[in-house]
Amino acid sequence: MTRQTVRDAGEFGLIDRIHAALPEDVRTSSALAIGIGDDTSVWTPPQGEQLLITTDALIEGVHFDLAWHDWRSLGWKSLAVNVSDIAAMGGQPALAEIALGLPADTLVDDVLAFYQGMADLAGPLSVVIAGGDIVGSPTAVMVNVTVIGHTVGGRFLTRSGAKPGDLIAVSGTLGAAAAGLRLLQLPEDNARRRATTAGALIDALLHPVPRVALHQALLAHGATAAMDLSDGLLGDLPKILAMSQVAATVTIDSVPVAASVRALFPDDWQQMALRGGEDYELLFTAPESQIAAIVAAAESMGQMVTVIGRIEAQAGDHDTLRLLGSSGEPVHLPQHAFEHFGAG
Amino acid sequence: MTRQTVRDAGEFGLIDRIHAALPEDVRTSSALAIGIGDDTSVWTPPQGEQLLITTDALIEGVHFDLAWHDWRSLGWKSLAVNVSDIAAMGGQPALAEIALGLPADTLVDDVLAFYQGMADLAGPLSVVIAGGDIVGSPTAVMVNVTVIGHTVGGRFLTRSGAKPGDLIAVSGTLGAAAAGLRLLQLPEDNARRRATTAGALIDALLHPVPRVALHQALLAHGATAAMDLSDGLLGDLPKILAMSQVAATVTIDSVPVAASVRALFPDDWQQMALRGGEDYELLFTAPESQIAAIVAAAESMGQMVTVIGRIEAQAGDHDTLRLLGSSGEPVHLPQHAFEHFGAG
Fold it and tell me: CA-CA distance, A175 to A181, in Å (whole number)?
């Protein structure tokens, strides 16, 4: 009998084990187009069109610290990370169910602020908070949000459609949330923490904006695969490569990083951009012929899209993700992302 | 500024405050027939028929103790309590999303056993496990399950339809799960724990069977309101009374209790039946003219249904729930149910 722990297996190793252990009729059905492993499930009810369903858990001490995450921004973010999953499939979020585990000495006003933060995001997106569950928790605050969305015109975008020759692109800039987290960990009188640009970086961490409209534009313009960036570029891009059974090259100097991140963290900005999580920007692939139209569509929304690499065919034992320097020379970094169980 | 805690407010007081604080457009929509407050949400997607959605959180140390809840039965129960909510609306469960918070030293085999327990229930019900989230948790195991179901023929059964004159009935017997919990808290060499009937009572706690088919039969035979019993009869019946704006009388001697509960707990069996939670039996109301047909339908499934009282019109300041003894005399018990935050 194996005594392997979840720390040993890691999040994705564990999910693979679970997938393999479940009877096929419990993890697949003719109504389930996408099951375990993508941003959302895609399911067709007996009467009606395809729905997108996603759930995310956030636990105090693991995903947030109430010393810097005020309750209102925690509410925003708890909903935003799920909406971002729906957006990553090209869907329109519609409905949220909220489960909260609360220590008994939690203040009611804090709980109401949490819901206010959800409402700040839900209102403009026309997402309805439809129900949930509130239970006691011994010590840590626990938040679990489930969001249901629907496709627009019956189409959706998975992680598995990337093709050799496609370009790889991201929206916005990367590393801002990681920089914001680092700033929050500094003493309040630290010079960097007091920089005029610090507030915007902290806000990038606390109030990510799901790219709902941009994802739908991508879908309309022929993108082949997409996901939202929650575990960092070097953590997430391999998921698209694995699901699509392809390889990739990424030119690391082309990865867009905000000037404020470079200025405040001259030694770490590239690590933040490549490995920092929680940007909730869009990572996608599209045929080269479509990129100009996608960039134009993004610009018309005031959003930036940057090409960072290219999808290649898988070739035997080689690394599936090759990083290139500015002169095209190979760069070797250990592959590493935020790992929920402290492995790696 | 109020400094009220969630312990002070209690679960249902807190839910009322949240409901009142949410902007109307965030808690209601034309597509949402049932929002916060019933067993499930009822939502109609843009294309298609009504869906039922429910979510329940279970936290180690609050809802279960791994000293007696083996992982496989924890998986069963985590899914069962959600399926029971779908069943309580007269729906057919279809899809589950599972979020798990796990301490890093959790054994992989235990996690796989958890999913096996889910599959034990999901397979026969044709419920598909479609996705989820697995995250680290500092100490307590946290389980959050969301189940989506659909109506059968477009109809569903809420807590708000009880009418004066309706009879009140329950399925099965009450108090077995509470007796099972008490047995698990006794030393293993205790005589009651070693009784031949103890195993079935412990099983009632660990492996509740959602009454999916029975609820659908109720719906077909004109029941007016229904819910599943999770917080005990005296905790749950007032929720139907409040939502339906009616009162009720219950003859406590008519509440069905297993002979083994009476025999093992001669002093406490009635409290267990009235206040013990987690039976996941069905509590419903129906016009007197329909009861015979409902009892016959239940019997054809091998299930017991017992009339325990009657819905009355609300009358001013009187208690909405009156308990009667065997001679019709009023019995006064403090209203009390399992309270998640330790209030009451």
Answer: 10
